[in-house]
Write a structure and sequence with these properties.
CATH superfamily of the largest domain: P-loop containing nucleotide triphosphate hydrolases
Structural class: alpha/beta
Largest sheet: 5 strands, parallel
Shape: globular
Strand order of the largest sheet: 2-1-3-4-5
Number of strands: 14
CATH class of the largest domain: Alpha Beta
Number of helices: 21
CATH architecture of the largest domain: 3-Layer(aba) Sandwich
Distance between the termini: 57 Å
Length: 481
């Protein structure tokens, strides 16, 4: 058998609820990849967490159960997969060939959108092209580039806190570069020659987090065939980065707190006390203060982790840094692909300056990759650029929506400038549906609690859900608990 035949194939996560499509694509792509087939969002997440390492690439349908006629589950899966593996390319393969869906999926971090029915050979080339970028470039997906006031503040905090032995909590939106801030803290510290280990708390099954962190004794649980050191032990005098710390199981949080307070821990199945000297850095895109108030995160652990807190700014607050990042990625990917860097027309540059980048630097990077692939060396017009932007989304997150009327008017003005076909009714409906869906998610489908969270009575919420459910592209779930 030749070396190429013996080489282990790259893994591909294929998520589609249609058995015929899933099995057909799995057979066709199985010649190039080790295909992991899943039929739902939860099935996909469970299988990824069971894998020794994340898939090299993912192919995801938007319309998944329990709402296959809507894109909500697919959108949620894109976000969750990127939380597990931020550098993994995700290709959307969907029969919901709506341009707004394509743009929103890309804003969330998807690398490409392919409409069904897709030519299998074209799909194969798309996957290979995206993976090729990863093999020609360093693994780091996002750069901490910028000289705006928010980035100046971030760089100053990184230098100030780098040599402290105390924990640092890094907060920031998805795609903003929290993992690079953690790497920078280690690189700028006196520990730079020591190990730097990273564990994504969302990427493994909850019952495996404890042995992953603290190690295990032989026979400690089913499958523990030998003794193994955990991350705290292997980090030695270096740095341990705990990404997605908000996903840490509640019953494990006291053990992490103990390590942070006195360095002591035990391997699973042992009574011997061990001592960690590693410096801990944690990151989250959740509001941990709210998690504490709602009983999902321990207050004492939060205060211990947040001795120092760093906020990685969203791209929309970084001003002209978006042009520095544009130039950085444009040159980087053009050289890697032996292509020619594109330019922006003045109209496209103005559009770039006004766009709100809901997916932050990750979204910007993916836009640059697509523009290079489609417009090699050519000037990019405003129309070319708008085809890659999620101009139908509101220009600010709910958490960032100001209460000041003048600021709200400014945001509305920017949104109207960015959107070529605006509908007030549609925009209000999207916001209403998004808040209702968010309230149901936070309350696990309990309509009474969701109504209380939204500041309306239960009957009013039922009525609004019923109205929204009859609209095209309905994004609410009328199920109750």
């Amino acid at each position: 058998m030749s070396g190429s035949q013996a080489a282990k194939p790259l893994s591909l996560l294929l998520v589609d609820d249609d058995p015929l499509i899933g099995e057909t694509l799995a057979y066709f792509l199985g010649r190039d990849y080790a295909v992991v087939l899943a039929a739902s969002r939860f099935d996909a997440l469970a299988k990824v967490r069971e894998m020794a390492s994340p898939p090299a690439i993912a192919l995801v349908d938007l319309g998944l159960p329990p709402t296959p006629h809507r894109p909500d589950e697919g959108f949620a899966l894109v976000t969750e997969l990127l939380a597990l593996a931020p550098a993994m390319p995700i290709v959307i393969l969907s029969g919901q060939n709506d341009e707004a869906n394509a743009r929103h999926a890309r804003a969330l971090g998807a690398a490409e959108f392919v409409a069904k029915p897709a030519d299998p050979e074209m799909l194969r080339r798309t996957l290979q092209g995206l993976l090729a970028y990863g093999t020609r470039l360093p693994a780091t997906a996002i750069e901490l580039i910028g000289d705006s006031p928010p980035m100046d503040k971030l760089h100053a905090q990184l230098r100030q806190y780098a040599d402290s032995p105390f924990p640092v909590l890094i907060e920031g939106e998805s795609g903003s570069g929290k993992e690079l801030a953690a790497e920078a803290l280690h690189r700028l510290s006196a520990r730079t020659a020591q190990p730097y280990l990273a564990l994504n708390c969302a990427a493994i099954s909850p019952n495996l987090v404890e042995p992953a962190l603290f190690g295990q004794a032989k026979g400690a649980f089913t499958g523990a065939v030998g003794s193994r050191a955990g991350y705290f032990e292997e980090a030695g005098d270096g740095t341990l980065f705990l990404d997605e710390i908000g996903e840490l199981p509640l019953d494990l949080q006291p053990k992490l707190l103990r390590v942070l307070e006195n360095g002591q821990y035990q391997r699973v199945g042992e009574t011997q006390q061990r001592v960690s000297r590693a410096r801990v850095i944690a990151a989250t895109n959740r509001d941990l203060k709210r998690e504490v108030r709602e009983g999902r995160f321990r207050a004492d652990l939060y205060h211990r982790l947040s001795v120092f807190t760093i906020s990685v700014p969203p791209l929309r607050e970084m001003g002209a840094d978006r042009f520095l990042l544009l130039d950085h990625f444009r040159q980087r990917y053009a050289q890697a692909d032996s292509g020619n860097a594109f330019t922006l027309t003045p109209e496209a540059a103005a559009c770039w300056a006004d766009y709100h980048f809901p997916g932050n630097v990750r979204e910007l990077r993916n836009i640059v990759i697509r523009l290079l692939a489609k417009h090699d060396g050519r000037p990019i017009s405003r129309t070319d650029l708008e085809a890659e932007l999620d101009t139908t989304s509101a220009p600010a997150t709910a958490a960032a929506m100001p209460n000041d009327d003048e600021q709200l008017a400014t945001l509305a003005l920017r949104h109207l400038r960015e959107t070529t076909r605006f509908s007030l009714d549609e925009t209000l409906q999207r916001w209403e549906a998004a808040y209702i869906a968010a309230a149901q998610q936070l309350t696990h489908g309990n309509v009474s609690q969701a109504a209380k969270l939204l500041g309306i009575n239960r009957t009013t919420l039922y009525n609004r859900m019923e109205v929204l459910s009859r609209l095209p592209g309905d994004t609410t779930d009328t199920g109750t608990r």
